């Protein structure tokens, strides 16, 4: 069974139709990259799947492991195994990073009928995973993303993803604003999560991210639909020729 199956998805915001009959299938173990020009609907797709309330789905369905995501509240989608890494992670002053992480993990465990992690187990797990991502104890003591650089915010999101162990990871332009060193650290963290039972959707403008997170399938999105799919070489073609040739495909 497909891990993620999207059929004929239409969505709008404030009567502005953005997704116009999008179809996508992601099987367990696959990494899919979605590329396309600004305004093609890439980020809207991620928001609709995660349950951002401003977006209205007007037709179609989105199934995660056979469950209808569109009928679930955002927290239920997360507990079902969906994780969205934002393009611009926000700061949450007054909420300690460690408190945030522990609350998120235990809320998901509780929703799945699992026991909460003990304090020693939680601390041991965070210390191990944070070290792999170059996240210092000082960063963990701060408020969520408070005073973090762009690269630190992205690494903190990958830490959250690593701890939560989702079934489906959606990375919305996670390379945005990263220098080459930060890009490498973030990509290594993502690659460490590749697994036979986990799928990933990587949304990006640039082929450079796909040098580090090599996709199984690349999709071109334009005007709210996927207009072409291919192997990793398609990303190189797009880098060379741009998106101008796809405008008529989505007309």
Automatic annotation (TrEMBL):
Name of one Pfam family that matches: ABC_tran
The ABC transporter domain, residue ranges: 4-248
SMART domains (UniProt xref): AAA (SM00382)
Keywords recorded for this protein, A-Z: ATP-binding, Nucleotide-binding
MF-aspect GO terms: ATP binding; ATP hydrolysis activity
PROSITE patterns (alphabetical): ABC_TRANSPORTER_1, ABC_TRANSPORTER_2
Name of this chain's protein: Fe-S cluster assembly ATP-binding protein
The organism of origin for this protein: Aquabacter spiritensis
